[in-house]
Specification:
This protein is mainly α and 503 residues long. Helix content is 82%, strand content 0%. The protein is built from 18 helices and no strands. Helix 4 packs antiparallel against helix 16, helix 5 runs antiparallel to helix 11 and helix 5 runs antiparallel to helix 12. The protein is globular, with a radius of gyration of 22 Å. The two termini are 27 Å apart.
Length: 503
Amino acid sequence: MTTPRVRWLVTAAGGLTALVLNLDQATILLAIPTIADALDADLSQTQWILAGFLLPLAALVILGGSLADRFAPVRVLQAGLLTFAAGSVLSALVSDVAVLIAARVIAGSGAALAFPASIAMLHRSLDGAELTVALGSWFSGALAGSAIGPIIGGLLLRTLPWESVLWVSAGLAFGLLVLVTIFVPAERQPSTAALWLRPNAVVAAAMALMVWGLIEAGAQGWGSTRALIPIVAGALILAGVAVAGLPRLDQPVEATRLVAAGLAMMALAILSIVGTVFFVITFMQNVLGYSPLRAGFALLPFGATAAVLAPMGARLIRQFGRVPLVFAGIGFEAVGLVGLSRITPTTTFVGFGIFLALLGAAMAIFPAVSLDLALKHAPAERGGVVSGAHTAALQFGQLISIALMGSLVSSWVGGIYRSELAEAGLSTTVPQALIDDLGRGLSASPGTAAAAQIPRYEFLGEVAFTTAVGRTILFTLALTSIASIVCASLLSKPIHGAIRSGS
C-alpha cells in the first residue's frame, strides 16, 4: 500500500513528465520556421521533422502502455525518458535534415514509452479523488508545457541557435530521470498482460504509409500513384485492424466501445487544430515578420487558455456532464477555426488572438472528456494500454493534421498564386522553387520581374499562402465534422446513456 509521500511523488512525477514532453513539442513547433531556414528544408521536409517525432509516438505508444501494464510503470517511464533525452541530444548535434528526422524518431520512441507509463503509474498507484486530482495535474503539466514552450523557445532563439531548444529538452529529461530514479519507488507487480507486438507493428506500418502518402501528395499531386497507393494501403490496413477488433480489455463489449468512443473523440477533435496552429506560427514569422519570441507570446492565448481550463476538466464533467462539455468544445473549435481561416497578409494579432484562445479552450476540453470516458470503462490493470491508446489517438490526430493540412496547402498554393497573378495582369510563369517556398509562407518575385513589380509579386504570394491556409482549414473542419457524425452514428447506441450520465 502506497504512503501519502509516495502518492505525492507519483503525482508530481506524472505531471512533470507531461510538462517536459509537451514543452519539447511546443518549442519545436515554434522553432520549426527557424530550423527549416537553417537547414534549407522545403515544406515536405519540414513536415517530416515534425512527423519524425509524432509517428513513433502515435504508433508505439500503445506498446508503451502494454509494457507499463506488464512491468513496473516507473521502469518503463525511466526507459522512455532516457531514450527521449538521447534522441534530443542527437537532434541537437546534427546539421542534416535526414539525420535530424531520424534523431527525432528516436526521441518520439522514448516519448511513446514515457507518456503512457506516466498515466499508468497514476492509475495503478492512486484511486478516487486522488486519481482525479493527479490526472488534472497531468493535464495541467501537459498544457502548461504547451503554453510556456513557445515563449521559452522564443527566448532561446533570440540569442542562441535552433539547437538550443533541443539541448533544453535533453537537460530537462535527464533531470527528471534522475528525480524519478531517486525518489519514486518502482513496485514490481507481475502481470501476464499481452504486449500485442504484432498488432503494434502492423499499426505502425499503416501509419507510416499514410503519412508518407499524404506528404507525397503535397509534392507530387493527389493523383500521383506515389501518394495514392500508400494512403489507400495504410487506410485499408488500419480499417482491417479496426474490423478485427480492439485489444480485449476483459470488459463487456459496450464498455470496450465506450473506450473506443473516447479515443475516436480525441483523434477527430485534434485533427484540425495542430495543423492550423502550425500554419499560424508560419504565418506570424514568415508573413507578418514576427520574431520567434514575439510569435511565442502571440501564441499565449492558445496555450494559456488550455492550461487554465485543463485542471477544471474533472470538476466540469461532474458539474455539467460530458455532453454539454463536448458540445462546448465543438463550438469553440468551430468558431476558432472559421475565424483563423480568414487571416490575410494584413491581419494583426487582434484579428486572430481571440480565435487562438477558442482553440485552446477546445484543446482543454476534449482530452479531459475523452480520457475520462476511456479510463472509467477500462479495468485498473489495463490503465497503461488504455492511456497509451488515448495518447496514440491524440498523437495520430496531430500527425495526420500536419501531414494532411501541409499537403493541401502545398497542392493549392501554386494554383491560387498563378490565378492572383493573372488577375493582376502579371506573368504567371514563375519558377517551381518559388512555388515551393510559398508553401511555407516565404514570398519572393521571379528573377525576371521588373523592380516596380517586385512588391506586387511578393504581396500576391502572401495572399496566395493565406488563402490556401484558409481553404485548408475549412476543408479539414468539414472533413472532421463528417467523420465525427459517422463515428457517432456507429457508436451512439451504447454510448448515449453513459456519456449523458457521466458514468
